[in-house]
Amino acid sequence: MTPEQYVQDKAAKSGSSFYYAFRFLPPPQRTAITAFYAFCREVDDVVDEVHDPGIAATKLAWWRKEVAGAFVGRASHPVMHALLPHAAAYSIEAAQLLAVIEGCEMDLQQSRYLDFTSLARYCHLVAGVVGEVAANIFGRNQPATIAYAHQLGLAMQLTNIIRDVGDDARRGRIYLPVNELKQFDVKASELLERKAPWGYSERFTSLMRFQAERAHRCYDEALALLPAADRRTQRPGLAMAQIYRTLLREIEADNFQVLHQRVALTPLRKVWIAMHTHWRER
Predict the structure, then answer these.
(1) In a designed cystine with 208, which of 89, 121, 194, 256 is the match (CB 3.0 to 4.6 A)?
(2) The whole model's pTM is what?
């Protein structure tokens, strides 16, 4: 299997909204974003699939060395072999890849965030930096597009957090800020235990509505930051925004039933949204 086949397989198997959004890119950009996305999946899978924190930390330390080595011509992993040929063309820097790893390391070091400020730092690393790299690959011409990409990354990560409250609780993690749990009188134990009726209450619904409203504000702020001159090139990011925001609205319509299930859009619906956005933003 070639490095290019490896990253394509990694991206396709994920079923992520990202995969559907960048299928409409020209081949050079699609190859670059596929390799970058495969890198993100590799390091994120370390945290999600390796149950021993010590082993996971060792694996992430290996990835740090792999990134550093790859940028001086010593790549060994197929993902880095696939990604490095595109680094110069799309301004992909080692520091950006290391930031993504740092964000994954935070998952090993803490399972709670005291307030939104501390959560936003985590979102910056695992989503904002990813958005910046993606925006460069899509074709960024305006400096202001970087701010758009970071804000959009924050909005999508907040959507992920809302969707994954139940899945994260099964892993002992709560990304909803501690001070906001207290504000709405929702106990961490209610989320972690998920006892019948699954921890749902008016308090929980109010807390989740608060989270959703903030995510919607972030989407609106991101779209307002995108310069008109870059709107056409950033169509894949706009498609991702539409897919994620549609998911958020589905969760809202279902009254935030996220503790016992993982709400998702069908692949066909993701493709339709991506196609519609691509056509609308021509």
Answers:
(1) 256
(2) 0.93
